[in-house]
Amino acid sequence: MARLTARFWIDAYLARLRLSDIPAFVVAHGDDTGGAVLVKLNTLDGKAQLFQRSIDLATGERAWFSLAEGDEAEVDDAIARQRGFDPDIWVVEVEDRAGRHLLDADGLSG
Question: Is 0.85 surpassed by the pTM of this model?
Fold first, then answer.
């Protein structure tokens, strides 16, 4: 099965978030075709969580894993480190006090 381009996935993800009235913004534009994607969940209380899509070694499936969690400044530092390694990375910031990110919704793991 062909993988979606990063840009297509980002556009679809942002549309799904909008349908659920969850604000989200692209804060770093990566490579349109093959750029990796980071999703920062900002709960607007000084805390945040950073997600990255990777292969689950137990199942072989692509899944979202927490890369960093805690004070928003610490999560922002983790993002800066990742962007230092890979300038083609996308970063999407989701802002939701209830902690909704929809990454566990059907169709978003691939």
Answer: yes
